[in-house]
Amino acid sequence: MLDNFVSLTELEKMAEYADKVRSLIKNKSLRAFVITLGCQQNEADSERIKGILVSLGYTITDDEKIADAIIVNTCAIREHAEKRALSIIGRYKHNKAKNPDTVIGVCGCMSAQEHRSEHLKRSYHYVDFAFGTGSLHRLPEFIYGALTKAKRSFVLDTERPQIAEGLPVVRECAHRAWVSIMYGCNNFCTYCIVPYVRGRERSRMPEDIIKEVRELVESGCKDITLLGQNVNSYGKELDGGYDIAYLLREISKIEGDFWIHLMTSHPKDASDALIEALSCKSVANHFHLPLQSGSSPILKRMNRHYDIDRYLEIIDKLKRQNPSITLTTDIIVGFPGESDEDFEKTLEVIRRVEYDSVYSFVFSPRKGTPAYSMEDQIPEEIKKERFERLTELQNEISRKKNEAMVGKTVRVLVDGKSKNNDKIYTSRTEGNKIVHFEADKDYTGQFINLKIIRTDTFALYGEI
Ligand code: 5AD
Ligand code: SF4
Fold first, then answer.
1. Is CB count within 10 Å lower at the N or C end of the chain?
2. Torsion on CA atoms 101, 45, 167, 64, rounded to nearest 10
């Protein structure tokens, strides 16, 4: 179990490099810019990256043009994400040309792949370092190497990546927060790059998580998302028989008015104990259960370890326990070998479950995963057509479900003023539905009740 955590020696090394960087940049008023692509795990990692940068003496800026250090936190889940990351990295060539002292680093899932790391090293000479998601604690060392122009570092987390507890954090938002409860994934779904770039599952100790959640609640945070690639298998490799149900029960003992969300779950590990624990105080009335495909043979080729009957059994249990639960899912269209019939089965499940929202993706072959070299790849135009049909069906369901909310009163957490209109505020329900409303007073960060007065496909509109 101890193998899960970065050793004390490593942390001491981190502190030594941090001291060296601090004395190098002291009194220089340097600014750092961090750009985040991809999922909530990356958002959470970026908050730690910013925390480390601030501890080194940098000020965080939103303006990349004036930044003395730039970190690009990349995603590799689909080809589009990697292309976007490379194009963003490309534009920082000018920053380095203008100011050769600018530190440029790349991290996250894209740079954790050997071929990408090599490519960055060879073709992007202005990139000082690139590292994977398991090496955040080495950032001071990489920055020191860049500032002293002593070495460029390209580090893959080829050894088992480990958890560094206690890294500083700069949180983006006071009333919503991410708390990583575990890292990595053991599932090797055949389409997915994550297990190759984030390593095997490793869980944080429950007491560290509970302490972090308690501190957040005490500081006024109202919505906390427990993060992991598959939070349902939380604690499996820890001694002590911990599981996600235990963690939810313990967190629900924390006093205060707040929501706990989970992101994300694997149906194969959605135990009855977990479903029961969802009714604990503070646990949000929302469950995200990735379906990926509505066809059992495709699920088998995806290596998902459940069939459609089992999936629907879990959904039925969730609905029986709490008929008003908000259900959301992830679906991939155009997986290799997906026939029209398989795709129809996916639409059937969507009709049957009536999700509140669906995150749908066109299958993107990822080099290094089994699905990359599977025969029967689906032509792009068919994938696109299926994607559009699925979106159309789900939009109709979302619209219908939203319409049914008119006249009802919902509790929301207010996020702040809308970007386009100064009088309109944006908020979200427990099930993450967006509700816009007008107000003269600023309720940002507070729970309020709104009566829904009208809706469209993507949002609800309410009044106080
Ligand atoms: N192509 C398309 N979508 C993918 N996802 C993961 N890998 C791929 C891929 N290669 C989707 C899955 C997952 C979500 C985060 O991204 O639906 O649940
Ligand atoms: Fe990828 Fe599957 Fe792991 Fe999710 S459970 S991160 S889809 S391999």
1. N
2. 30
